[in-house]
Here is the input.
Amino acid sequence: MRARPLPASTSPATPVPGADLPRRHARWPDWRSADERGALSAMRAVATAVAAVVALLLAALAATFVLWAGGLGSAQAATTGAADLDRSLSPYFVVNGGAPGVDALPLKSTRADVTISGVIAEVRVTQIYRNEGSEPIDARYVFPASTRAAVHALRLRVGDRVVDAQIREKRQAQAEFAQARREGRSAALLEQQRPNVFTMAIANVMPNDEIAVDLRYTETVLPTDGRYRFVFPTVVGPRYNGSAAPAAEPGAPTDAAGAPADSHRSEGWIAQPFLRATRSAAHTFELHARLVSPLPIAAVSSPSHALSVDGAGTREATLRLAADAAHANRDLVIDWGLAGAAIGAGLLVQPAARDGDDNFFLLMAEPPARVAAADVLPREYVFIVDVSGSMHGFPLGVAKSLLRDLVSRLRPGDSFNVIPFAGGQSLLHPSSLPASEENIARAIRFINGQTGGGGTELLPALRRALAMQADAGRARTFVVITDGFVTIEKEAFDLVRAQTGNANLFAFGIGSSVNRWLIEGLARAGKGEPLFVLNEAEAPAQAERFRRMIEQPLLTRIRVRFPDGAGQIEAYDLDSVQLPDLFAQRPLVLMGKYRGALAGTIEIEGLAAGGALRLPVDVAQAAQAGAASGMPAEGLKYLWARSRIATLGDDTRVGGHAASNDAAVREITALGLRYGLLTDYTSFIAVDKVVRNPGGRSTGVDQPSPLPEGVSELAVAEAPATPETEFALLTALAGGMAWWLRRRRATASRDAADRGEVHRA
Here is the structure.
């Protein structure tokens, strides 16, 4: 499949030898008025239509065959190095040249200071912006976050002045930021585009300025199979935005393409510029971490970066990135375990700081090991595999390895099918096949034949898979394998939640910088589990873990009963009304508010194949265990509010979309304002009182991001067309041209015959 042609730069610039500066991204709508965006979209639509009409067949065929043969797409540019070709990659990639005096790479460094106590992580991220040019600039940077992060503080430092940010409703924060920029004041605006994607905007960074922005967040770190994993994302992968936008409501405002004005197609952050695949991050990256535990810390490792570890085997360990490992192009992952038996149940409490405040609790309990069923029902597996441009190369290789492992582990009584998707989909077979040796070998050949290219049309693939007739007599399991570089997360969640029925859906995130929000959300909507494969070496272990989950009976219908007698704990405002099913050996975590004394017995109940399970938790003992763990309880209110917001977010559209549940939006906004949290509808704004740039004249700069490790440049300009459609179009054009030539030849022959002329071959 070919990649979409990259547009030529529309802004001539004088090349600067040895420089590699980003040009303002042509698709950032936030920098333009609505009229300008509409006119630009209209011009692009007209240009596209004209180009499609006047394109030469031979040129189209030649370009297509070159890309099919080489599988390189836009990545060919990486091997040429020609200045003209480099400029043709704008605005998707940074280009040589730029406005004189403008520092186009203002973000100089990022540092993360992490303290993890038990299951709670406190993180401080410091970003240093410095203007080394001669002109004032406004900088913007897109960066990722943990899906569990409760961002509760932002501080702006300009020289020796410190400004603590305030939480505001998103539109009010945007208005205050715009006013500060016009007035010439330095300001910072932190916005959430997705639960795992933030944008930072800095206004009026003067020449020789150094501006530091500190943000703080809290998150939970839960063990799985007795091991802990902390993930610090460093880069946002390129998002495919070519799928159909939601239909506009009658009378609702639309953009130039007819999509809702607030749909995912209008989200400017998606159009962030990227560095070429051959370039590393333009800023430095540091991480300092401290692990604190009531038990000795054992087997600290990282599958992503080289670490320097001090204190392993003790109750406190410190970690730093090795000198040659400061790579900001992939998620930083830290794994560790604890020596000795883990705490079976623990209760953390945060009493009210003053009268009128709430008391918060976090309950964590490890259900007893589940006994495998005597007879595991045969299952039908439908594997939905991403083979788009962003998966080209390394990620697709990892996906193939994983899929081969999964298919090879099927039992003789199972059945299965494989649906690869990019711009379109194909099927291994019209219906699921028995898991025979012959069919498994056929599937492996089919899998090995996938090459990677084109857009990431996840929704049509999901619809096709979910609409397939189920294999009677077998429990059904859907398995999605993707990097998640899409913008239709909420639509995908809604689809899976509505159409999975009694089936389960598991989601595998593939690659070094996965869209974890999509992977976790798909699994949550499909009553399954998220799994992540960073590299090919992890594929067999994750395939085995998946097999254990499937073959172990599900713990479902989980209920937590609190005591109702006088003098005992009374719980209310739980963060989750319906507790999720449990597949793996992981603790049950429940947060809420409480009244009364820390006494009584909490009962956790659930159903497995072996029958009912019951786990009593003595409140007083659990509270003592929680206090002895050394875990900080001060951040429980943020964690509770963040978890409640995540639950409510399932009932809303995110990232600027129109809300489908006004009540949920109001509650999310109220929670964000009350607890000072970043949400889809609340933002942090910090404004310096000093006017430093009278007149407010400045140049907008979009800080480029590195491509995630292993991600092809094909991901940056994925084409929405399908291979089938593309081939059909070329075939039709060729046929039409042949018919026209035959007709013209016949007409010429008749004319010649009428004139008495003779034509010889």
Observations:
- The chain has five domains: 1-100, 106-236+281-343+657-690, 358-371+555-628, 379-551, 722-761.
